[in-house]
Structure formats: structure tokens, C-alpha cells
Amino acid sequence: xxxxxxxxxxxxxxxxxxxxxxxxxxxxxxxxxxxxxxxxxxxxxxxxxxxxxxxxxxxxxxxxxxxxxxxxxxxxxxxxxxxxxxxxxxxxxxxxxxxxxxxxxxxxxxxxxxxxxxxxxxxxxxxxxxxxxxxxxxxxxxxxxxxxxxxxxxxxxxxxxxxxxxxxxxxxxxxxxxxxxxxxxxxxxxxxxxxxxxxxxxxxxxxxxxxxxxxxxxxxxxxxxxxxxxxxxxxxxxxxxxxxxxxxxxxxxxxxxxxxxxxxxxxxxxxxxxxxxxxxxxxxxxxxxxxxxxxxxxxxxxxxxxxxxxxxxxxxxxxxxxxxxxxxxxxxxxxxxxxxxxxxxxxxxxxxxxxxxxxxxxxxxxxxxxxxxxxxxxxxxxxxxxxxxxxxxxxxxxxxxxxxxxxxxxxxxxxxxxxxxxxxxxxxxxxxxxxxxxxxxxxxxxxxxxxxxxxxxxxxxxxxxxxxxxxxxxxxxxxxxxxxxxxxxxxxxxxxxxxxxxxxxxxxxxxxxxxxxxxxxxxxxxxxxxxxxxxxxxxxxxxxxxxxxxxxxxxxxxxxxxxxxxxxxxxxxxxxxxxxxxxxxxxxxxxxxxxxxxxxxxxxxxxxxxxxxxxxxxxxxxxxxxxxxxxxxxxxx
Length: 637
Ligand SMILES: *[C@@H]1O[C@H](CO)[C@@H](O)[C@H](O)[C@H]1NC(C)=O
Ligand SMILES: *[C@@H]1O[C@H](CO)[C@@H](O)[C@H](O)[C@H]1NC(C)=O
Ligand SMILES: *[C@@H]1O[C@H](CO)[C@@H](O)[C@H](O)[C@H]1NC(C)=O
Ligand SMILES: *[C@@H]1O[C@H](CO)[C@@H](O)[C@H](O)[C@H]1NC(C)=O
Description:
- The chain is an alpha/beta fold.
- It has two domains: 14-143, no CATH class; 185-429 and 437-621, Amidase signature (AS) enzymes (Alpha-Beta Complex).
- Helices cover 39% and strands 11% of the residues.
- The protein has 22 helices and 15 strands.
- The strands form three sheets. The chain has an eleven-stranded mixed sheet with strand order 1-3-2-8-10-9-14-15-13-11-12, with helices on both faces. The chain has a two-stranded antiparallel ribbon with strand order 4-5. Strands 6-7 form a two-stranded antiparallel sheet.
- The protein is globular and about 85 Å long.
- It binds 2-acetamido-2-deoxy-beta-D-glucopyranose (NAG) (4 copies).
């Protein structure tokens, strides 16, 4: 709550209020929740003011009579007359000891804790002023003056590992397959839709330089970016510098591995020095963070080439950002969903070979499914988030958007690992997905699984059984809400206090949720974490298979998977006709997708199964009709 430094309200409203008290026919609606966050209605003074007439509705009827009200009115009127010369409202009401407690009493309803009697409330009020508020202010000054970022991470560290012993595993790189006899296609568009391991083979055999590849993708970013609205910053200078380094190294006979010279994009919540890191938000549109995010550092050291900072929905929510709204390349008249809107749409449209996005609750799975790309939401903690905008320290994860599960494995191998700046990151003991014998694996399928995947994997020798997760925790979605919203508000406390939320791009999204988060007591936040512990235990006990196949956009499963920290591979499995097709023939399609879920630390199982499925199907290789534009759109030449 802001400082109550408002002078007394002007005389007329006061008199009106007095009159309404005199007749004490205050309707129930007058006792509506006090405004605490309007532009000019904030502060304790106005809350007390509005709470005042509510008194009658709380008192037993006999005492709520005319004479009582009249006494009150005379008393307040006198206080007002005595003190109206520039005395802050707060001090006037301090003379009437009950008034503050009444305001608190009104508020306690929204904490679901309205069982304190008046003397207890008074005591609480004094205690809060004396002890709580100074502590809040001290802590805020200490750690919360900056918005976002993983600064001052909480000591409450979430471990998604299910194993008891602390395995000290030497990180061994995956042995990914080499593709032989790859030939450079004549058309740039065919190059743009090649997989990473095909592209790097072209580079390694010197059929193409990194600079040439960079040119191909920069051209596409500039051509399609404005139509798809999926690009925030094209990083030309940096890209050409990194491409030159990659080409020079190869000239010297130094080959860094499967990402050598490969262009890619980063969701714009990931900091790269000298370029804007906008978080997709109007408030931070011009922000430059002089930080090398650890995921960027790792990609740089593998020789990859950053070509663009891609759209994140504003403050990593949905697909609306300060410059527009990202569209689905498979159907331009539809939006991409979010919040990794740019990574999903840009990978889908062949504007980058791969991109890094993030998920707190659905931000990888939803846009990957909508845009028909293969993606991995890894086990929580696999990829360090140093230098990345923070929503929830126990939920946020970074992951790859690619053309295939093989590429996802290659990128994951490059970006995984502990970083000192992110206490939740760890060396997750993921095995080599290219060396899994899937015939030894038992896979469950939910009712919502795409059956084609079930049949294909079955034909490949995987054991498939019908499956259902069994858990008693009912409020999976509300646990997610409480955790995510309170954590987010902690990272954007100052942003809300300074009322930047009034400028947020979609008022019904973060602003509403984060105001609501103000009324979540710490006790209940921790109770939600206890409920989350129970959920994890039950899911672990009922996870009797090695992996399961199910709907990847089902909200309950999205919340559950994220609360548990469970990995999921997003796999395109086909197409449907669009609902309202444009006149004439159209190549626009609705993508169909499924999820392959594995227990934490078993990303290799999900990836191996996705690779097995993709080895005999080609849904993931289809190209979206990005030249089939919506009305009023045109493409830059
Ligand atoms: C509130 O409850 C406490 C403890 O039961 C009691 O001592 C006190 O008198 C009560 N105050 C009022 C105003 O009822
Ligand atoms: C589901 O879990 C409950 C409670 O743990 C247990 O009683 C029940 O037997 C389980 N059901 C199945 C099908 O495993
Ligand atoms: C979680 O928050 C979203 C967004 O405000 C809301 O639509 C949804 O109803 C909430 N769910 C629960 C269970 O609180
Ligand atoms: C997956 O879940 C989404 C969201 O609930 C729903 O629209 C879709 O129809 C589901 N798909 C299947 C195959 O159940």
C-alpha cells in the first residue's frame, strides 16, 4: 500500500458522506471493496474513508441506530473541523483507534481470514506498522529495487530430481549421428528448411560458409518478420562478426561441433550485451542489459551465430508485445499464442534454424504446438537462467525450438549444465538420447494421446499400455497460479508500485493477476508449496511407465508438468483443415501435435521416442504457407 499522504477530502464529499450516515440507509453495494490501486484513489486515507459507512453493516442491528450514527457523525465532524488545516487524513483517523482496524477488517475478507475480533485487529494493525512494514521496506531496498532479472535469487531452491543420492556425473556430450552425402540445394528456401545437422554438414564440408547461411536467414528475418510480427531486433553486426569467427576457425582446421556457424534466435527475455533486451514490454522497450546470459555464452562457445532477438509476449505472457501480435505461419489470420511466440513462429517460418524460448506455464508447449515445430521443455534446472528475465524461480525453464527431435537433442546438449548465477540449475544426469534402446521402454498413453504416435512406436517395438496419472490434489491450476503470480510480483514489485502496469499491453493479463497476488499471504503461498510437494509425490508414485503420451496443450497437464518440473517433447503429428478457410484453395492448416512426457532427468527418453517417431514420419518437415498472406499484408522485397 502506498504512503497515506493525502490531505482530507474536500468539504462537499464529506458532507454527502455525513448525510448518508445520518440516514444510515447505506446499501450493501456501498460496502464494495475499497480501491487500492486506481491512479488517484490509492492510499490508506481513501480506504478508511470508504470503509467508514460500512460500519453499520457489521454491527448488530440494535446498535446500528440513528443515535449511534449521529454520535459518530458529530464526532468525526468535530475532528474534521479541528484538524482540517493540512493535517494528513491518517492522523485524523489515528485519534479514533478503531478506524484503522475497520479498514483492515474489510481487507481481511480478501485474505480469506476475516475471523479476528476488533481488539485483535487493532493489535495486528499496530504490530504490522511496528514490525512488518519496516522489514518489508528494508528487504525491498536491499533486493527489490530493480525489476525482473534473476538478481538476488530466493534461497528456496526447487530440485526437480527424483533421485536421493547426489550423483556426481561427468557431463558427457551426446554422440549425435553424422549425416553423410548432404548436398547444397540451389534454392535459399530449401537451405532455410534444412535441419541443424544437415546445415552443419554443409559447413563442415565447405559447401557453404557460415556467412552465406547468415545471409540467407537475415534476409528471411527481414522479409517475413514484419508480416509474422515475430522479430524484435535483427542482430546483423553481431551475426556477421560471429559468422566470420566460425568461418576463420574452420579455415584453421578447427571444428567446434554440430552448432559451428549455425544461425539461431533468442527469445527477447535473454540478455545479450549491446543489444536491447525488451522483455516484449513497453516499459522496457529501450532497456539494454550489459549481461551475457549463460545460455547465450554457451551457444557462443559452440560457434553458433546469433541473428535475432525474437518476440516474447509482454513480460513473457501470451503473444501480444509492444510492437504487435505474433501470428501463426500455418494460418496468418491466427495468432501464435505465447509467450515464446517469436521462437516458435520464426522457426516454423524458416527464419532461423532453431531458437531458444522459455516456459513457466505453457510458453514452450502452446506456441510450438500452434506453429507446428518440434520443441523440448526440459527438466527443470537443466538449462541455467542467468541473465534471463525471471517470472518464477521454481518454474521458469529454457528450451529449444527446432525442426526435429534430433536437433532439439543437439541444442539441449550445448545449453545444459549448471551455472553459478542460477542456484536452481544443476548437472541433470540426462543420458545420451541417441543410444537408448526403445524396445526396452514402456510407454503409457493417455486418452488424449494422438493414436498415430502410439501405432508408430508400437510398430518400432516399444511396449505401449493405456495409462492415467493418479493424484488427489485437486487444485493443480491454483497452485500454479499462486506460485507463478506471487513469484512474478516479487520480481516486478517496483514496476507495479510505480503503476507501470497501467501501461501493460493487455490489461486483462498480468495487471489483474499481479494485483490479486498482493492479497496472497505468505502463509498461504507456503501452503501452496506444501500442496505442490504432495502433488509431486503422488505423480511420482503413479508414474509407473518410462514415459507417457498425451495432450500437450491441456491446461491441467501443463500446470502439472510445470509444477513437477517434468520434461516434455512437443511433436507435430499432422494437420487439419482450418475452420474458416479463405475463399478458393488454401494451404493454410491447423497443426495437430502431441506431447511425450518423461519423469524429471529423463529427457533422453522423451527425445529418443520423438526421434523414433520422426524417423518414419514427415509431419515435422512440412513447410508453412507463409506467402499466403492475410488481407492488407504484403511482403518486403
Ligand atoms: C477478542 O478476543 C479476545 C480473545 O478471545 C478477547 O480477550 C477480547 O476481549 C476480544 N475482543 C473483543 C472486542 O471482543
Ligand atoms: C490412486 O491413488 C489413491 C490414493 O493414493 C489410491 O488409493 C488408489 O488405489 C490409486 N489408484 C490407482 C488406480 O492406482
Ligand atoms: C489462474 O489464473 C488465470 C488467469 O488469471 C485464471 O483465468 C484462472 O481461472 C486461474 N485459475 C485458478 C484455478 O485459480
Ligand atoms: C488437447 O487439449 C486442448 C485444450 O484443452 C483441446 O483443445 C484439444 O482438443 C485436446 N486434444 C485432444 C486430442 O484431446
